[in-house]
Amino acid sequence: MIKPLNGRAVIQVEEAKEQTVSGIVLPSAAKEKQQVGVVKAIAENTEDFTSQLKEGDRVLFEKYAGSTFELDGEEFLIISESDIIAIVD
């Protein structure tokens, strides 16, 4: 796994839904980028920064935040914790 630095977190973004609530099937081009994911790794706490996250938290983040990367065939997002809006229960 990857270890983020300087107040960043690694997020596994949830898959986009295949259909709307009313049952309309969406083509892949119409799907919006998901803004919800699961925290897979967080940076270590330092004197200047203490994380509010823990691995396994489900979070909501800013729409265009972070950088995507692929590791072992899975896509992840590395994002600054300041771009995370909320922890979702």
Question: What keyword list fits this structure?
Answer:
89 residues; six-stranded antiparallel beta sheet; single chain; metal ion binding; ATP binding; protein folding chaperone; 10 Kd Chaperonin, Protein Cpn10, Chain O; chaperone; unfolded protein binding; 38% strand; mainly beta; 6 strands; elongated
Examine the coordinates and then state which fold CATH places here, giving the name of the CATH topology. 10 Kd Chaperonin, Protein Cpn10, Chain O
Roughly what is the average pLDDT, rounded to an integer?
A: 86
Number of helices: 0
Find the structural class using helix and strand composition.
Answer: mainly beta
- Largest sheet: number of strands, sense, barrel closure: 6 strands, antiparallel
Sheet with the most strands: spatial strand order: 4-5-1-2-3-6
Order of helices and strands: EEEEEE
Strand content: 35-45%
Number of domains: 1
Helical fraction equals under 10%
> CATH homologous superfamily, by name?
GroES chaperonin
Count of DSSP strands: 6
**First-last Cα distance:** 25 Å
Low-confidence stretches: none
CATH first level: Mainly Beta
CATH architectural grouping: Roll
Outline type:
elongated
GO molecular function: ATP binding; metal ion binding; protein folding chaperone; protein-folding chaperone binding; unfolded protein binding
Main location: cytoplasm
Organism: Aerococcus agrisoli
Protein name: Co-chaperonin GroES
